[in-house]
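Table S2 (continued). Query chain:
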Amino acid sequence: MRPPSSVPEVVADQACHAAGSPCWHPQAGLLFWTDLTDGRLLFFDPASAKGAALPGAPKVLACAPRDDGSLLLLLADGGMASFRVPDAVATRAGTQPWGLQALLAAAAVDGRGRLYCAAHSSSEKSGSLYQVRMDGTTEEVPLAVGRITAMDFDSSGNLYCCEAGRRKLLRFSAHGQAFSEPQAIFQVPQSLGAPHGLALDAKGHLWVAVWGGSCILRISPSGREEQRVYFTAKLVSGLAFGGPDLRDLYVATSGAEDRKANGPGAGALFRLRPGVKGLPKHPVSAVT
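Corresponding output:
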């Protein structure tokens, strides 16, 4: 077992232009993430210390583990697919309600295994939240928020969102199928950048990837910055806890097309040991 360390190390360099959706698959023991520019589905295997793109996978925007052990893929063509590691991809038919002209920006699973997706069009400042069911049906969820770049649920069912336009972290309390009005708990300084990735640890603190700030922040539930970790990449775009004990923090970065401007580590996947466990993720339930 490696000792705790807040010094990030590059564990895989797939030269991502727009990395997103990192997630840990506990059954497979793999970290998955995507490159939104070409829809590549990428993985890192801690056991072999190797990372690669999965051959034959369709263009993927986001992914999340399912309760049957497969990996749910949200596809660039608007459909869904179920990927069984390391077998094959079985694609579901159907187009999601945000359509092909909109951008799927974030996905998260609540404690009941329900999948929520945030999307927005390239021409609008506001976004929409949808509950996506595995039978292909969807339901739009009213949410008073602008463009969401990341979101996650805590153990009480509260929803946390990164709103990049106003650089805010928002908390929504769950009330059955609905959510409360947003409570702003932290604002990223304009000089630093915009919040772009989000993960919760077991103590209820938020870890935030800062796009343009070369760093991640640890924010307390009361909204106080408690830790800042810097990277050799300017565009820090997503993060997820992983490893068998959830004590590894994986951080995805973007901007490999211009490493002179974005840093020598731009586009690489980093790992660090922050000294705290991540909050276990719920898989997507087949019955939701």
